[in-house]
Amino acid sequence: HSSKSGVTHFMCDNEEETLMSIRELLSFLPSNNMEDAPLVPCNDDIHRQVEALQTVIPEDPNMPYDIKDIIEPVLDNQYFFEVMPHFAKNVVVGFARLGGRSVGIVANQPAWLAGVLDIDASDKAARFIRFCDCFNIPLITFEDVPGFLPGTIQEHNGIIRHGAKIVYAYAEATVPKVTLITRKAYGGAYIVMSSKPTGADVNLAYPQAEIAVMGAEGAVNILYRKSAPEEKAEIIKEYEDKFSNPYRAAERGLIDEVIMPRDTRYKLIQALEMCHNKNQSNPPKKHGNMPL
Length: 292
Prior knowledge:
Layout: H1 15-27, H2 68-74, E1 81-83, E2 91-98, E3 101-108, H3 119-134, E4 139-145, H4 152-156, H5 159-172, E5 177-186, H6 187-192, E6 202-205, E7 210-212, H7 216-223, H8 229-242, H9 246-251, E8 257-258, H10 264-275
Parallel strand pairs: 3-4, 4-5, 5-6, 5-7, 6-8
Antiparallel strand pairs: 1-2, 2-3
Helix pairs in contact: 3-5, 7-8
Organism: Phocaeicola vulgatus (Bacteroides vulgatus)
InterPro entries: AccD/PCCB (IPR051047), AcCoA_carboxyl_beta (IPR034733), ClpP/crotonase-like_dom_sf (IPR029045), COA_CT_C (IPR011763)
Protein name: Methylmalonyl-CoA carboxyltransferase
């Protein structure tokens, strides 16, 4: 159930480990839904730069890397409490602290299925997002997503309906929402992962981020499939220079700031502080109609 069905969130070896996991989970949560996320003293410098982040992401956009190599170094004391680590590994979720404040982490995992969204990953992310919103825990999203998983199995089982759960969860959430695009942000999956159109408060991006309908090579192979290889290579380079970068998105207001990877910790804490007094409520209604 911890790896196939996703029914269980944690798997422990004994009773003591189980109780310690429960205790650790509760440390990130407020006493009730009316309180803010817990704030504890922070002895980790909020201005701490992480030079190692400058080289974590490979130059080849098709090479995988572990998103936790970006997440963990920027957190308070580099501690990440992962939830459902064995289920739908293409999405990583869990709790952490930034500047002493509890936050929920949602991230695509390029090391597993290239970080694509599928049915299980969509359900896992949507469930976690709604849980955080229930208890006023800010959301930090690390985005590197090439799209939704293709195939008849996914289509026949309603991948669109399941993917819509993430959109719904993010749009419904009233907590502070900060997004960092580390590399790829393609097509509908980009919109799904806490983009400006779904109500994200602050959207950051690394200089190598690619925000587009699809990758340059894929787009050129469709639009110019009859062209010579040399011509295709030239068009790909032009496409990348013009569209596959965060600056065009920043011009359109979809990205608030392009940051250097080493500054990730401070920029995330700064964004959270800016959104700390956010006071948003959804229109009065009996309840929303989540795409179940």
